[in-house]
Amino acid sequence: MKTALFEVPATLVTSSTTLFWFRRDLRLQDNAGLYHALRENQDVLPVFIFDTSILDKLDDRDDARVTFIHQSLELLKTQLEELGSSLLVLCGDPVRLYATLKPKAVYTNHDYEPYARERDVQISDILQRKDVAFKTFKDQVIFEKSEVVKDDGSPYTVFTPYSRKWKAALTPFHLKSYPTEKYFKHFLRTKRLPFPALDDLGFTPSPIDFPERVVKRAVVEKYDQQRDFPAVKGTTRLSVHLRFGTVSIRKLAQLGAQKNATWLNELIWRDFYQMILWHFPQVQSQSFKPAYDRIAWRNDPQEFEAWCEGRTGYPIVDAGMRELNATGFMHNRVRMIVASFLTKHLLIDWRWGEAYFAKKLLDYDLAANNGGWQWAAGSGCDAAPYFRVFNPRLQTEKFDKELVYVKKWVPEFESEKYPKPIVDQAFARERVLRVFKNALG
């Protein structure tokens, strides 16, 4: 990486400059932290930091998420320059970076992941010692932390009562947009600032096509009827935009409340898993139900590789994995099928599958990914019971009866080139029930 990416122009960030730090909120409209920064200050300079603590852990130099962020920042920068401002893009360790700066204040939005929480505490302490305010706001969820809890103040660990309480607590205020446009005049007037190329960051462009930043109302209206069929374009494909905040959760929740309760429920699941991660950060590496860490996983590396590459001999499983590898996307129904197959049919630790999804998914989000994998394995909060073992053949008959999805991704599945099933369905079910029962008593 080029040294220049660490440098901040000496005259740009002064004691009269307020920084707004973009993170999981790459948009100007309806942005909570940005609204407060602009309303309360003059000379607000937007900044984005490519965090090397995160980038250095990525194996693929053409990681599609880095390309997505880079493209989103290009759009942000163009929009800001049309307003007479610009975007300061840096690369490095945010803690070390803020140690070198003394702005008037730093504004940003909350991040609930354990690494981000620790990083923000360090930055807050550094800035506080300089008498610089560090202000953070709720933006990526409707309800956060302990805003929706049981009557005794403890967190919910079952989704249905949580969702009831969530809906009961919802008011028009929670869905109201933040009118950032009213205060755009408060952006710092500056010349166009340098913008790093991907190769400056040590990456190359990804060939993956990204879903449009378009809210398809017709899809939302029919979501409850079409969402389970992977061959149908029945989902909005907005998850990557939600993940990086290129669309507003408030806008989408408002649409869900108006048009489709099932779609709104999916957004409530996002809040639920963020709340779980906040209250139970140990789920990042441990089973939510500790007894599940006693399971004697087989963890066969060759079988895991076959699963990763879509060579299990189970067509819908293989279709899902090939779709993921090629596009960074997998249909939600298929995610459940492939996760159940890995943990139940192959008896491979859910953490292996979670890590592979974390590497490949465009919309990778620690809270949702962890929650989904622990749900499939039975180890999570409100999870599928351990004796629920998805039958890939029956799932195919129910949700891809004409084999449109399977044929798209596994064109050879009826030929001699297609591998035999990696494990027998009946044997796998009997084995997993025995192993789980022995571990769980």
From TrEMBL:
An example Pfam family from this entry, by short name, is FAD_binding_7
Flavoprotein as UniProt keyword: yes
Provide the site residues for: Electron transfer via tryptophanyl radical: 297, 350, 373
Identify the domain of life.
Answer: Bacteria
Q: Which residues bind FAD?
A: 223, 235-239, 263, 266-273, 363-365
Q: Where is the Photolyase/cryptochrome alpha/beta domain?
A: 16-142
Q: Name one GO molecular function term.
A: DNA binding
Cofactor detail note:
Binds 1 FAD per subunit.
Q: What InterPro entries does the database record attribute to this sequence?
A: Crypto/Photolyase_FAD-like_sf (IPR036134), Crypto/Photolyase_N_sf (IPR036155), Cryptochr/Photolyase_FAD-bd (IPR005101), Cryptochrome/DNA_photolyase_1 (IPR002081), DNA_photolyase_1_CS_C (IPR018394), DNA_photolyase_N (IPR006050), Rossmann-like_a/b/a_fold (IPR014729)
* SUPFAM superfamilies noted in UniProt: Cryptochrome/photolyase FAD-binding domain (SSF48173), Cryptochrome/photolyase, N-terminal domain (SSF52425)
Gene3D superfamilies given in the database record: 1.25.40.80, DNA Cyclobutane Dipyrimidine Photolyase, subunit A, domain 3 (1.10.579.10), HUPs (3.40.50.620)
The protein's required cofactor(s) are namely: FAD; (6R)-5,10-methylene-5,6,7,8-tetrahydrofolate
Keywords assigned by UniProt? Chromophore, FAD, Flavoprotein, Lyase
Q: Name one GO biological process term.
A: response to light stimulus
Q: Which family does it belong to?
A: Belongs to the DNA photolyase family.
Q: What is this protein called?
A: Deoxyribodipyrimidine photo-lyase
Question: What species is this protein from?
Answer: Chryseolinea serpens
